[in-house]
Task: structure prediction
Amino acid sequence: MGVYLYDFEGNELGFTDKIISSYRDARWNDVGTFELHIEKEDALTKIITENDYLFLEDENNFQDIIIGYTYNDDFTIYCRSLSWLLSKSIIPPTSFSGTISDCVENLLSISKGCSINLGTLPEITDIYTVKTDEVTSFSDTLVQCLNTANLGHRVRFSHSDNQFYLDILMGNNLDFYISENDCTLSSLTLNKDILDLSNSVCFKKRMKYMGHWNPSTNTPALYDEDKDNYATYYRVSLSSGSYTRFDISFSDGNYLYCDSPSGKWKKGTAPPDDFYVYVPDSSVSDKYKWYNISHKENKDEALGELSDYSINKDFSAKAQNLVFLKDYHLGDFAKLQYTLNDKTVSVPCQFSSVTINRDNIDNTENPTLKEVK
Result:
């Protein structure tokens, strides 16, 4: 194993294959880490201690930016995969929907920070909505988007034009099982909890002030039991006396408001308060009505959140006796097979990460799988 050292302009600054040990944690849709131990006397030591904005590249085309080092018994170099650069780029507040491919292009076009070009982008027709009320990191926004379709990403440096590129990646389907019978399943942990389970929702509805209303002239024109009245209110304006409309007697300074989906108007003497709406699950008895408090402001959006508050069931599994980049790549799909309560269970899974330990004695690989939902 050997590694080349480059600067951000693509200049090759050095090479070493005198490696004491290395540890890599490669991730599918996340930032990976790399730790390299070399002798203090190695030629790379002087270059790294005197320069910044450097990255390493190995024989498998892994490219890792150097984020720090320790000069002690040996020289330890700490790295992150080039995808870490996306955390140094920001996305301004924005809102748009489209295919995931369109969303990736839009995010890249509005991002501010690191100069990263669009590389490989498959046609992905899944629809996604990007909505950020505050400035967010490009990395976090992109990862959330790609996770919905089990996609991955990488940032790479192209030596042909000395530019950084963002590639969106898709895994391949493998035709083998990860199982104890095939000696490819190293460990399996099953988890289940109902901590977040909710089937009913409560949210705060904010009253919207619409301006002044004259009941004698019905200006602006309003109608009783109109669904558009819901969660709105007006200040009553009359030059003198009182006037009855909607079977309600109004005086100047009263308030007309509606806090019911029926659109029925009511009268108040002060601006109405915001109010809470409770939407219980009508299919279960009261003992099973478990509420989630939503920060949304309408019923459909609040109910839409309930899908995130279901029974949590997942697993963590590690594979063995497989060779990275030969038998599998990160992002590839396989079938995980195990026995539970004397029943054989088969679930789709994806290679989400792999740790690789190398030293002068041994090389070990530990791939991790996640359930595909």
Q: What stands out?
A: The longest strand covers residues 343-359.
